[in-house]
Amino acid sequence: MLKTRITERLGIQYPVISAPMARMSGGRLAAAVSSAGGLGTFGCANAANTIGPDYIRQQIDHIRSQTDKPFGAGFLTQHIANSPQNFEAVLEQEVPVILFSFADPRPWLSRAKESGAVTVCQVQTVEAARLAVAGGADILAAQGNDAGGHTG
Q1: Which residues form the domain of 54?
Q2: What single string gives the DSSP state of each residue in the chain?
Q3: Residue 25: which CATH number?
Q4: Is residue 152 included in any domain, yes or no?
Q5: Is residue 150 part of a domain?
Q6: pLDDT tens-digit profile of 87-120?
Q7: What is the pTM of this model?
Q8: Which of 7, 17, 18, 82 is least enclosed, having the fewest CB within 10 Å?
């Protein structure tokens, strides 16, 4: 076990967080990562709007059937307004960690925090970091394209 502020805040053994890639990192991968001591996550919104609340509930049910460790649900923040029922499903299921990427998270952060979730905001610029902090994000995840990550 590596003791860091991230491991302590998220209740995990290792400072490893899987990427919540919509349709690519579902409940199976999230459960495996969480079971191994990291934070497993899965994606809940995409540009094609092909993910619905039933899919989200299925992923959460699968994760909870495999592990009692923390896990997270991630959103491409700019798509939450197109499928608010997905965000509602995550809140109703009391997912322990909610991740936001690529857009201003402030409209959604307070509801996520009210549900009891730890909030993680992926940021690509200083301005994005400022917006996330202003909204009350618990954790910032800085991402650049230098390691193969996309920035929005």
Answers
A1: 16-144
A2: ----HHHHHHT-SSS-B----TTTS-HHHHHHHHHTTSBEEEE---TT----HHHHHHHHHHHHHH--S-EEEEEEGGGGGG-HHHHHHHHHTT-SEEEEESS--HHHHHHHHHTT-EEEEEESSHHHHHHHHHHT-SEEEE--GGGT----
A3: 3.20.20.70
A4: no
A5: no
A6: 999 999 999 999 999 899 999 999 999 999 999 9
A7: 0.93
A8: 82
